[in-house]
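=== Discrete structure encoding ===
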Amino acid sequence: MTLSHTELAQQTRVITEDIVDRSAIQAGQIFVLGLSSSEVAGGVIGQASSLEIGEIIVQTILEVLTPRGIYLAVQGCEHLNRALVVEEDVALVKNLEIVNVLPSLHAGGSGQLAAFKYMTHPVEVEEVVAHAGLDIGDTSIGMHVKRVQVPLRPIQRELGGAHVTALASRPKLIGGARAEYQQDPIRKF
């Protein structure tokens, strides 16, 4: 499925706003993005990377997150051990391990290149503990989302040719038969 730039940005915005609203993510927390622009373009992950698609998606997600005070972390591919691009101040405040690598289209991917373009002081970090995230193209973001992970089905399950999934997280339920719990802000039960 081929989308115009406007359609791609609009659909990305709808999906991102849906997940941000339902995940209960707060200002000061990290939202992780896994992105296969190849899949969005209708191809196979890692085979048809598109800088243009990466730029549209990352720029749109930043437009949703930044006014809410939510930090974006853009996951790279396995060639960079799934390192992530974040703003340098986020890495410093959250004590994240900064690593020395620059992404390319086929080592890191289009999302990371776009993050380097649109972030003020981008750096690569080894890992994050995000509170929620969006996976566009089955890139497997789970290693960067804190436990307990709660799968969310986005309002729209495809973006172009890519399958879209999402994760949120909630505190662990501890205790036993006598324990009582606060209301779950994600599932609302």
Remarks:
- The radius of gyration is 16 Å.
